[in-house]
Design brief:
It is built from 8 helices and 8 strands. By secondary structure, the chain is α/β, with parallel strands linked by helices.
Length: 219
């Protein structure tokens, strides 16, 4: 069964507490926090995600799944560590070399937080093989990072399949998370290639019954 990390990027601020409550009642597994700095990607969600994270820490015990789409990884790791998330994921493409990748892995772990690496659609999975033994999760973007509501890019499913085979062959227990364009129409494709955690935003938020939608996504 796939776990569901609900992206709250599309939640309206004035309805946020109600939406968060309804998502929890619907039995999601994580709240997915999309942090964008307006530099690594075009959109800037820093203020909104800070506000949402503060609200969530007061009203829920569900784990936070923080996805950093930022250039200055170190600053945002330190900022989001204060919310005590379950995991902080940063982008491989935001690091200038492999030494910086390992430095960021160590920084996240130093706060006793699980660490993930995200890769954009154009990044080949072989580029992150050497880091897999040191991280908890590899997040494969199934759309271009930075904007909600995009359709899933079919070619990214091939990458996930290759990644799953590599993890199995090398006896690694790294989780695979997929993010982008996932909904009731595409969830089976995601499950078929071996994804452990599916990030779903509008695929839940734009439905009339969160509980029923999450149940169908998980089956």
């Amino acid at each position: 069964m796939v776990e569901i990390s609900a992206s709250i990027l599309g939640a309206k601020e004035e309805e946020s507490a109600k939406i968060f409550y309804n998502l929890e009642v619907a039995k999601i597994d994580y709240f997915h926090i999309d942090v964008m700095d307006g530099k690594f990607v075009e959109n800037n969600t820093v203020e909104k995600m800070n506000k949402f994270s503060n609200i969530l820490k007061q009203i829920t015990t569900l784990p936070l799944d923080v996805h950093l789409m930022v250039e200055d990884i170190e600053t945002y790791v330190k900022l989001y560590s204060t919310f005590e998330p379950n995991i902080i994921t940063f982008h491989f493409e935001a690091c200038k070399d492999k030494q910086e990748v390992f430095k960021m892995i160590d920084l996240v772990k130093s706060s006793n937080i699980k660490v993930g690496i995200a890769i954009s659609p154009k990044t080949e999975v072989r580029e992150i093989y050497e880091f897999l033994p040191y991280i908890n999760t590899i997040l494969v973007m199934t759309v271009e990072p930075g904007k909600g509501g995009q359709p899933l890019i079919p070619e990214t499913l091939r990458k996930i399949k290759i990644l799953k085979e590599y993890l199995t062959q090398n006896n690694l227990d790294t989780y695979i998370e997929a993010d982008g364009g996932i909904n009731l129409e595409t969830i089976e494709d995601i499950k078929d290639v071996g994804v452990d955690i599916a990030v779903v935003g509008n695929g839940i938020l734009k439905t009339d019954n969160y509980k029923e939608t999450v149940k169908k996504l998980k089956i």
